[in-house]
Amino acid sequence: MFYIILYIYSVFLIIMKEITSQQQRVLDCIQIYLKKTGFPPTRADICRELGFKSPNSAETHLRALEKKGFISIESGTSRGISILNENESFKTDDEYPVIGLVAAGSPTLAQENIEKIVKCSKSLFGSSFDYFLKVRGLSMKDAGIMEDDIIAVKKTTDIKNGDIVIARIDDEVTVKFFNRKSSKIIELEPANEDFENIVIDLENEDLQIEGKSVGLFRRN
Hints:
Arc Repressor Mutant, subunit A, 2 domains, alpha+beta, two-stranded antiparallel sheet, single chain, 11 strands, Umud Fragment, subunit A, elongated
């Protein structure tokens, strides 16, 4: 009977230590923020970095991480977050290129377009991705994507309306909302009223979808 109880308790501890993808994103965000600034993020910082709409969302994940023993939270202070068992909770074994200004006519991942290589947890955005792309311009500002933000790009052609895509039109690479109007017409829509939609007639123009955005990281 004792061994049965011990086994059940061990299983319970394993389940309690499991972490969801969203909780892993929050944990990784805390670690990155600590390495970048030297102090932990506030709830508002976590919302801004991960795109949560409410500080309550950040708080819910933080309390779950505290309960599972990944972090400790000091009451009465907005930055009272400490990571426990840091070496176990955060892995930075994955390297990703950061793509800056894409040279005309060159493949996006060409060596001349790579500004640097960064290490990042592959679970940071809750989805696999292949590289980071530095955003140029303000055409997506109303979607919360500002100039010099870094978006995580998943190389895929599995795109649906409403996805934020990385598209190549002739030699220009752009980030826009995808909207297929018909089998022949695609509109790339900005999130800024100062910019017009880009209408692509597939019979007469060449459009290549290089991937879609699966997350955003603001480094400044």
